[in-house]
């Protein structure tokens, strides 16, 4: 046989093998097509939804999603601020290991990102709206992304339009990020009656607070509509057997929520719907972390969960396993020179231990310092005014501003984390054990870098006082 004929034969054979490999790349080892994956992320949403017992909110699409899938009652973020939380999801690594410890920070360039794991399995991986932190999306390696700016109203709509126009036959991973219910909230309560709503624990009941809470719920309802519109498009284009995960990047921007390691800051509403795989109308108390989402998506996609990351696949939980993690670790540092209050936490099934690394600092956030800039800043001074004559209000405000070195909560008997048992001699053994667990974990993480930002030692301004964070005229 002549050399040219042999060469053409080799090329033809190689081409056929390449084509066969390309055709097989969208297959599981068992021969079934890889599922399409949809991840919908809310922004600053706590467990303020009907599936978690909130009687106030109107969110029928999320209630329906819960009925059609599995509710994860104990899902937690890695850090209760936007950038580190999302970086943990998109790397499978905790903040100290991926480099995004403070808010606004991006993970290191050398850290492998979520899209590449799924692209290696033959997926097209795209993002619309706030998926990573604002204007950081490009660095994560998505095949396509749009509208990653602050409160961009076209983010979710662009995802729906893109999905309906898509021609590719590759398996798809689409991330859709809403900006709701991040502040600023709607200017009106949009049908919510401030006088009729039930306020959450650790809230000072003032008229301006009730108005703000009602507008927060109006923002949640806007999120719910975006979820419904997205799922309608997903069901129409990709089919109802598509894997859908809904979650939020951390708790709501309320005192003791966002920027805190209490459950109201780190425990987030999470639902998975996957027709034919996840039993509808089920709930699980298995503890999972946002760093677990990356390996779970890889697992569901038919790949092998990556080694060397902090995340662990919770796909077994979706198939009915009762347990996942024994402990949940969370961290918070700062947001520039706002929210400078480093803290670390370990949570077990029953106990929560928080180490406030600099208890000499005054805990402050956007909530109490930006009086004229954001919604929460407008109501918090009313809490301080109420605290002047109301001991209960004073206790709440003092607990906001001033934290002890250690906090210990018995979550079985005190789920709202109101009674700090760190000084209770009867719990000395529990305190010692959790303190040691957290210290060992921090060592394993290399969590020893100094915190950036300038700490605060004064409480925020009251009405009529100058706001130091606003430019002077």
In short:
Helices cover 33% and strands 14% of the residues. It is α/β, with parallel strands linked by helices. The termini are far apart.
Within CATH, the superfamily of the largest domain carries the name Alkaline Phosphatase, subunit A
Outline type: globular
Q: What is the number of E strands?
A: 12
CATH hierarchy, class of the largest domain: Alpha Beta
Number of folding domains?
Answer: 2
Distance between the termini: 88 Å
CATH topology of the largest domain: Alkaline Phosphatase, subunit A
Radius of gyration: 24 Å
Output the number of helix runs: 14
**CATH architecture title of the largest domain:** 3-Layer(aba) Sandwich
Low-confidence runs of at least 5 consecutive residues: 1-26
Relative strand content:
5-15%
Element order, helices and strands?
A: HEHEHHHEEHEHEHEEHHEEEHHHEH
Query: What structural class should be given to the helix and strand makeup?
Result: alpha/beta
Mean pLDDT: 91
Strand count, sense and barrel status of the largest sheet are:
8 strands, mixed
Helical proportion, percent range: 25-40%
- Main sheet strand line-up: 4-3-5-1-6-7-2-8
InterPro entries: Alkaline_phosphatase_core_sf, Sulfatase, Sulfatase_N
Keywords: Hydrolase, Signal
Family: Belongs to the sulfatase family.
Organism: Sphingomonas agrestis
């Amino acid at each position: 046989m002549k050399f040219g004929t042999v060469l053409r034969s080799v090329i033809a054979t190689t081409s056929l093998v390449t084509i066969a490999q390309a055709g097989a790349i969208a297959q599981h080892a068992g021969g079934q097509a890889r599922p399409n994956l949809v991840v919908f992320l809310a922004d600053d949403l706590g467990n303020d939804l009907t599936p978690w017992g909130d009687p106030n909110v109107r969110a029928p699409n999320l209630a329906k999603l819960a009925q059609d899938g599995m509710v994860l009652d104990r899902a937690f973020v890695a850090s209760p601020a936007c950038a580190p939380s999302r970086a943990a999801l998109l790397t499978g690594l905790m903040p100290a290991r991926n480099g995004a410890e403070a808010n606004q920070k991006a993970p290191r360039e050398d850290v492998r990102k979520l899209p590449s794991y799924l692209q290696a399995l033959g997926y097209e991986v795209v993002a619309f709206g706030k998926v990573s932190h604002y204007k950081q999306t490009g660095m994560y390696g998505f095949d396509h992304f749009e509208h990653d700016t602050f409160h961009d109203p076209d983010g979710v709509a662009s995802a729906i339009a893109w999905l309906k126009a898509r021609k590719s036959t590759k398996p798809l991973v689409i991330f859709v990020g809403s900006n709701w219910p991040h502040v600023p909230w709607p200017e009106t309560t949009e049908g919510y009656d401030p006088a009729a709503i039930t306020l959450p624990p650790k809230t000072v009941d003032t008229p301006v607070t009730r108005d703000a809470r009602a507008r927060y719920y109006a923002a949640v309802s806007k999120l719910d509509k975006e979820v419904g519109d997205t799922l309608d498009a997903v069901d129409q284009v990709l089919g109802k057997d598509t894997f859908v995960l809904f979650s939020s990047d951390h708790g709501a921007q309320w005192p003791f929520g966002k920027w805190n390691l209490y459950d109201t800051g780190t425990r987030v509403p999470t639902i998975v719907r996957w027709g034919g795989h996840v039993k509808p109308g089920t709930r699980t108390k298995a503890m999972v972390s946002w760093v677990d989402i990356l390996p779970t998506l890889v697992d569901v996609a038919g790949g092998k969960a990556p080694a060397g990351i902090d995340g662990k696949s919770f796909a077994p939980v979706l198939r009915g396993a009762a347990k996942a993690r024994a402990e949940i670790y969370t961290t918070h540092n700062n947001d520039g020179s706002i929210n400078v209050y480093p803290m670390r936490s370990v949570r077990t099934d029953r106990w929560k231990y928080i180490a406030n690394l600099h208890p000499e600092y005054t805990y402050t956030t956007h909530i109490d310092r930006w009086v004229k800039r954001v919604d929460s800043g407008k109501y918090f001074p009313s809490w301080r005014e109420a605290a002047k004559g109301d001991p209960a209000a004073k206790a709440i405000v003092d607990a906001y501003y001033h934290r002890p070195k250690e906090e210990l909560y018995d979550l079985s008997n005190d789920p709202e984390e109101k009674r700090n048992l760190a000084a209770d001699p009867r719990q000395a053994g529990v305190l010692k054990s959790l303190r040691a667990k957290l210290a060992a974990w921090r060592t394993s993480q290399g969590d020893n870098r100094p915190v950036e930002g300038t700490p605060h030692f004064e409480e925020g301004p009251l009405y009529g006082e100058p706001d130091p964070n606003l430019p002077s005229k």
